[in-house]
Write a structure and sequence with these properties.
The complex is a heterodimer of chains A (475) and B (141).
Chain A (H helix, E strand, L loop, with lengths): L6 E4 L2 E4 L11 E4 L2 H7 L4 H8 L5 E12 L6 E8 L4 E2 L11 E10 H18 L14 H10 L1 H6 L27 H7 L12 E10 L2 H7 L5 E8 L2 H18 L15 E2 L3 H36 L5 E8 L1 E8 L2 E8 L2 E2 L18 E4 L7 E6 L3 H5 L2 E2 L9 H7 L2 H10 L3 E3 L3 H6 L8 H11 L2 E14 L1
Parallel strand pairs in A: 3-4, 18-19
Antiparallel strand pairs in A: 1-2, 2-3, 4-5, 5-13, 6-10, 7-9, 7-11, 8-9, 8-19, 12-13, 14-17, 15-16, 16-19
Chain B lengths: L8 E7 L2 E8 L2 H16 L8 E10 L3 H19 L1 E12 L2 E10 L9 E2 L5 E5 L2 E9 L1
Antiparallel strand pairs in B: 1-2, 2-8, 3-5, 4-5, 6-8, 7-8
The chains are: A alpha+beta (475), B alpha+beta (141).
Chain lengths: 475, 141
């Protein structure tokens, strides 16, 4: 039960008014239905959203998506925009895995043609793309090259032949935030990241081979190059240890600097400083650099996936990048004529057709958004709506959201049972450990169908296609 | 009457997407050492690891003792990620509210432990209790 009074504005939006706590500066709006609301109030995510609503310079509303759950400081599934002239920036509002995100690749293959080699392809993906703590000796970068990845993002990989020219326009921000400053990334972060490009990592990260199971918006699907029965590949990972270290470094720095700016917080993990301060500018530069690293990471994985598909299917295995979008990031954007720093933590940018940052090829339908389901469940392709600009600073949900601890998931369902169940549904699974498989069991997550249904009905984004897993390489 | 000094102990509590360490000890030095042991327990998947090799010096300074606990664990997480080395035994040479100098022996693994990504300030608590100190710290996993 929420400790704060919530008013139903309509069946899909509840608001905690600004009067709910004396230190709130803006209200909190939650996109949800009745059932998800029961899950949301069962943890501290609303209290965390209220804490965010107290931060200096926060404007409009703090938004919670239907997949919101408790995070560190900020809730996961939260959106908060701060004035850039007198507001703050907070590493906790981005999260540890800076630019964790999703990219979708579309093939020309139908399942019937791909099926005979599918198991070999999934095996090759698991062999060639390091997961867990695995490093990538093929891309062990010298210091100068790592700095170029941090400053230039995917453009560096294009130069190295690991990207196609047409990949960059179909990556959020072209795969490069120009505000990136490699000099603001610590030596420790660089030590953690120099050999992690092209690796999945662990937790809920994955590379998944899928089939377009249902087309729900034929016009948008056609614009994205998607059709029923087509094979796709979804990549979900982020900035690896490098991003974690950037967050750790700057939470520490800001924790020490806050007193100088007279900032007092209900939770130290909300550590923040003015956006327009030396510490704020340094974090923004480092965060953008880590975001560039994450886009380059997903691009390097794309290159490995393309090689595996080309080996198995020849020219018919060509993979087009549909789009790549972040769900843990802070970006400077124009909203209502104001220049704001929009923090999206476990929330996805969802710009509509008329936004200038929507790629030209998708200008008729809106920016693609990918919502990965939990392992073995469906994922969704959505399209951004113009209305989302006023409803949520142009944002939508990011996934199913955890509903169970990893320990509880393991106690509820042993890993070998999870593996057997996935295999009985024809899903090829590559995960070295049954224990890790159990941690990511579908039962440990909220229902992605319900989450997506809420954002669709609320007008934050609309359903375009449903993707069903065929093979999973788990991080 | 003087309270009996707390023996170092820890408890791991699982939450939705994190692990909470609850640590008790008689002194700040013992608390940090116990937190390090608890972290090692989370990082090591096999119970058959024994510390070996020369002890490594570890030095951390922070703004206050709660931040010192966070920074101490983050230093150990960094060493585990970079060197595949998990600290298990600790000898505290100097400890103040804002600084610790220690030597640690541990085990070098074939692969870096990927489970713990960071120690956080979220829900961080460290307080004086009868006989010593008690702390709660949440690990990002």
């Amino acid at each position: 039960m929420s400790a704060y009074p919530a008013i139903s504005l309509n069946p899909l939006v509840r608001e905690i008014p600004v009067t709910a706590r004396p230190d709130m500066r803006v209200p909190v709006r939650v996109y949800t239905d009745d059932l998800l609301w029961q899950q949301i109030v069962s943890d501290r995510s609303l209290e965390q959203a209220v804490n965010v609503a107290t931060l200096p310079g926060v404007t409009g509303c703090v938004y919670a998506m239907p997949d919101v759950h408790e995070g560190y400081g900020f809730p996961v599934g939260g959106v908060a925009a701060m004035e850039t002239d007198d507001g703050v920036i907070s590493p906790g509002g981005v999260g540890y895995d800076i630019n964790c995100g999703v990219r979708l690749l579309a093939s020309d293959l139908e399942l019937s043609a791909a099926r005979p080699q599918l198991e070999a392809v999934v095996h090759e993906l698991s062999r060639s793309i390091p997961s867990g703590p695995g490093r990538n000796p093929q891309l062990d970068l010298a210091a100068a090259d790592l700095d170029r990845v941090l400053d230039e993002g995917c453009a560096f990989l294009l130069e190295r032949g690991l990207a196609l020219p047409e990949d960059l326009p179909n990556t959020e921000a072209g795969g490069r935030l120009p505000a990136a400053r490699s000099a603001c990334v610590s030596a420790k972060a660089k030590q953690r990241g120099h050999n992690q490009l092209g690796t999945i990592g662990s937790g809920n990260h994955f590379v998944e081979v899928q089939i377009v199971d249902q087309v729900l918006d034929p016009v948008a699907a056609a614009a994205y190059g998607l059709r029923q029965g087509q094979l796709t590949v979804l990549i979900h990972t982020g900035s690896r240890g490098l991003g974690h270290q950037v967050c750790t470094d700057y939470v520490r720095q800001m924790d020490q600097a806050m007193a100088r700016y007279g900032i007092h917080l209900p939770d130290r993990q909300l550590a923040c400083v003015p956006f327009a301060s030396p510490e704020g500018e340094a974090y923004f530069g480092a965060m953008c650099a880590a975001a560039n690293f994450a886009w380059a990471n997903r691009q390097a994985i794309t290159s490995s996936v393309r090689r595996a598909f080309a080996r198995a299917y020849g020219a018919t295995g060509r993979l087009k990048l549909v789009y790549d979008v972040a769900h843990n990031i802070a970006k400077v954007e124009e909203h209502g004529g104001a220049r704001l720093c929009v923090h999206r933590k476990g929330a996805t940018r969802a710009f509509g057709p008329s936004h200038p940052e929507t790629p030209a090829t998708y200008r008729t339908v809106g920016q693609p958004v990918f919502i990965p389901g939990s392992m073995g469940t469906a994922s969704y392709v959505l399209a951004g709506n113009d209305a989302a600009m006023t409803l949520s600073f142009g944002s939508t949900c990011h996934g199913a959201g955890r509903a169970m601890s990893r320990g509880e998931a393991k106690r509820t369902r042993p890993g070998h049972e999870v593996r057997r169940e996935l295999e009985s549904r024809g899903i090829i699974v590559r995960c070295p450990s049954n224990s890790e498989l159990a941690e990511e069991a579908p039962t440990a997550y909220k229902d992605v169908e319900r989450v997506v249904d809420v954002v669709h009905r609320a007008g934050l984004a609309r359903k375009v296609a449903r993707l069903k897993p065929l093979g999973v390489v788990k991080g | 009457m003087t309270a009996t000094r707390l023996l170092p102990s820890h408890e791991l509590r699982q939450h939705t997407s994190e692990i909470e360490l609850h640590i008790r000890a008689g002194t700040l030095g013992d608390l940090l050492a116990e937190a390090g042991r608890a972290l090692g327990e989370v990082q090591l998947t096999s119970a058959n690891c024994a510390p070996g090799g020369p002890a490594r010096p570890i030095r951390v300074s922070s703004s206050d003792r709660a931040a010192l606990l966070v920074d101490w664990l983050n230093e150990l997480i960094f060493l585990a990620d970079i060197d595949r080395w998990v600290a298990m035994d600790f000898s505290i040479d100097l400890v103040e509210e804002t600084e610790v100098r220690a030597r640690a022996s541990g085990v070098t693994l074939q692969r870096a432990p990927s489970r713990v990504k960071a120690a956080t300030f979220h829900g961080l608590r460290i307080e004086d209790v009868s006989g010593g100190l008690e702390a709660n710290i949440i690990l990002d996993v």
